[in-house]
Amino acid sequence: MPSRPHRPWARISIFALLSVSTVALSGCAPEEEADQFGTASEALSGFSVTQRAYNAQRTGANVSETALNTTNVNLATFAKLFTITVDDQVYAQPLYASGLSIAGGTHNVVFVATVNNTVSAFDADLAGTGNPVALWSRNFNNGGRPPNHTEVGQACGAGTYNDFSGNMGIVGTPVIDGTANTLFVVTRTVEGGSTFVQRIRALDVTNGNERVAARTIGTIDPKTNNQRPALALSQGKVYVGWSSHCDTTPYEGRVLAFNTGDLSQANAFSAAPGNGQAGIWMAGAGPVIDGSGNLYYPTGNGTWNGTSSFGESLLRLSPTLGVQDFFTPSNFASLNASDNDLGSSGPIFVPGTSRLIMGGKGGGTCYLVDGNNMTHMTANDGGIPQKWHCVDPDNVRSGLTHHLHGSMVSWNSPGGLNLYTWGENDFGRMWRFNGSTFNTPAASVANVLPPQGMPGGMMSLSANGTSNGILWATMPLSGDANHNVVPGVLRAFDANDLTRELWNSTFTSVDNPQNFTKGTAPVIANGKVYVAGLSNRVSVYGLASTTQAESATVAGFTAGRVERVFTDPGASNGAGVILEGLAVGDFVSFTLNVPSTGVWGIRPRQKQGNNRGIWQLSIDGVNQGGTQDGFNAGTVYPELDLSTLNLGAGNHTFKFTVTGKNGASSGFWIALDYFKLVRRG
Amino acid sequence: MSTAAALAAFVLRVVVETAPLAPGQLPAPPDVAAPPAGAIKTASGVAIKILRPGRGTQHPQSNDCVKLHFSAWKRDGTFLSDTRHWGDPQNQCLVTAFPGITEALKKMTVGEQCRVWVPARLTFRAGDDDAPPPIDTTFEIELYDIVKAPPTPRSLKSPPAKATKQPSGLAVETLKKGTGTVHPLDTNQVMLHFSGWTADGRLVESSVMARHAAIFPMTGVMRGWHDALLQMVVGDKVRVWIPRDLAFGAKPGRGQPKGDLVYELELLEIQ
């Protein structure tokens, strides 16, 4: 279950290492040896993100990214392009479709679901001059409203259920059937004043219309059961999981399967019948699905008997939701009693093998489990290939919790298969697979340490096959996101060397993604990065057209003044241009090439100092934004978001004119680092 | 976890732990039930039998971590765990170990192997309100290495007279003067080494212990850090006394330390 109030003993790791069971049950062992895990079929043209973590293996890696690379994701050429404002917070991962025909046009489309039960489709590339207008948007409050976090569960933290904040409509990530172009989603409403309802819906991705009548889900408690995991699609059925809210009883972890054609319920599974808990929440992750359509779901605390109740276990369920095999950590009782859910994150498949990795809240332990022989519960966990201390093995925050949330990431790098973990209160870590187990210690460790608290890094990876791997992570900028809404930060790392941070959203204030969501990782598609958040928005990042000032063509400057290149390690590319202005009216102008006709955001970067003037930018003679003060007592390089305007392809004149001087400044100089143009429409 | 679930878990344990020894389990030592007459007994009730002496004279201290292997059994001989199955020695910090284990480790030296009888009340810590039922446990511990914590400052409760005090209550003592010329700004990230203690001397976090410098955005650190860092240049090392309200406040989040804190910060790089 989602985290409960702090229990200091949950950190007593020596007990977490104890095996308290001696049962060694034989595993059910299918015969296949090689990679048996498939990816969902997609009939959508081009690259699409139809499900959580890109694929049914939940690798979290988009290896079809050709635009973003380790060279161009940097301060000068990468930026927030625009923001998509929606009607409420976003916990669900945005989905993406390439080249979709909507309303007579062809668009790359990003689908966003909010906790106000609204699903919207936006052009994924272009925003225009203002907030993007949805291609379509549908609200499913059905005359009622979404449930609020204050009315669904017991106290979690101070006062009330605080794992969420505000509405709790759509939380689980939807899934798209790319063959039928149908998006499946579970909505949660309160209707008639007090009746809680959950419905599964099937939407036409081209217009948001419901393909069939929504189906009320009657075999769960619509108030108590928390639809947190991502929806999954396989063999003509949509699989939906539930937990509770902060262990509010009575409840039991559930998975239901619905036929895609008519949304009728096909199969049902209870992880611990008789309200034995064992919630399925996975911090929003989705189940791994193998090539036979079997699903791997982890559970949280709850009863366990190894035959019908499966708290704290990783389960392999058949397509009809029968238990085929399972793994339960040998310290089940310790994990269970301390609410250290195994299922606080999602499982991830090890490509090229039949193995999965599972990690949860049990003292930062990762388990490598063979999907063909999960070995049930064995002494010392001796039946599984490996378990290891994957969160904070170096004691940077040894006294704090080391839970894993969301999803790990795996990627076939040039040097071999890597696993990426970013548990709470730890650095991000890269583990190298040796063909059977993961080597220890970690092959690479990031230097970035998130603030104390939950949830660590929410990761996603982009690469072009085995090259140009970039690990993207969102995390709190400050504060603990466990029971609070906190500001977030987006970071990008060289996936081969986590000590090499390529870019982050604190470099420039306008790149701020606002409030962090612990519900999902960034999504990378076709050269753009989509970051959902709790500030009712999705921030869209991508490449800019940037000209370094020292390389730009100088169109002119005030006669008799000095215009020169300066060098400074703090400048992008180590250099920029200074106009040594002496009076109001002095100017320097540049001829910059705009690569395509469209709506462009103008983001120059200046070097502030104590002798700078106040200046005004004009483009082709038209002022853009207000006047800008170049004065600062120290040396600072702010990037400015001055305006958004239509520009035709070709050359344009960017003129910087001195309009005044701060009273504290000793001069009228203008110092410019680069000219960044971001395409917004 | 509900009371019913906890009871079920306990019953489950009782049931499964009476099963025959399975492959991979270790047989219990003959004296698992009770320490022999020659065992060292501490006032708290921990008993220690040295199976193999260690080398050197250095013992782990309260804030240290250790590398160890251990096996564990219930007093009736029921096998609980053995870390050797997983290869490398396990990491264990004394601040998070069972109190009984911490007590025993403090008496050991590297290379030493002991059998330790820990009473149930010295397993889970006091205040662990819904922990599993504690059990009397017998361990065999082999100490491989001591990961030393940074030295605890002597004056944790109040800054020395030479510390510079700010109106906010923050006090800063310079331990080493750097050679840098600029100070971090809110637009910067900083790379630093840090260690932090509560007023009673518990080590909260330490990049020094992890031997891995950490990066933070200036806008993301606690105010006590922020205000101290604004005054620093690269190479500076300071000790800062941070009042509660400039740290994690009156109501710290889950796991965050309470009260006034003392940190040592060494600024390595401004980004």
Main β-sheet description of chain B: 7 strands, antiparallel
- Assembly level: heterodimer
Low-confidence stretches of chain A: 1-42
Instruction: Please count the helical segments of chain B.
Output: 4
Report the radius of gyration of chain B as a whole number of Å: 23 Å
The beta-strand count of chain A equals 44
Instruction: Give the % helix of chain A.
Output: under 10%
Mean pLDDT level of chain B: 88
| Chains forming the largest contact | A-B, 89 and 79 residues
How large a portion of the residues of chain B is in β-strands, by DSSP E? 25-35%
Order of helices and strands of chain B: HEEEEEHEEEEEEHEHEE
Uncertain runs of chain B with pLDDT below 50, 5 residues or more?
A: 1-19, 126-130
Mean pLDDT of chain A: 91
Strand content of chain A: 35-45%
Q: Helicity level of chain B, as a percent range?
A: 10-25%
Radius of gyration of chain A, Cα only, in angstroms?
26 Å
Architecture overview:
The complex is a heterodimer of chains A (681) and B (271). By secondary structure, chain A is mainly β. In chain A, strands 34, 36, 37, 39, 42 and 44 form a six-stranded antiparallel β-sheet that branches. By secondary structure, chain B is mostly beta strands. Chain B has helices at residues 3-16, 99-105, 207-210, 223-229; strands spanning 40-41, 47-52, 65-74, 79-82, 90-93, 113-118, 137-147, 164-165, 171-176, 189-198, 203-206, 214-217, 237-242, 261-270. In chain B, strands 1, 2, 3, 4, 5, 6 and 7 form a seven-stranded antiparallel β-sheet that branches. In chain B, strands 8, 9, 10, 11, 12, 13 and 14 form a seven-stranded antiparallel β-sheet that branches. The longest helix of chain B is centred in the N-terminal third of the chain and has 14 residues, at 3-16. The radius of gyration of chain B is 23 Å and the shape is elongated. The chains are: A mainly beta (681), B mainly beta (271). At the A-B interface, α1, α2 and β22 of A face α1, β3, β4, β5 and β11 of B.
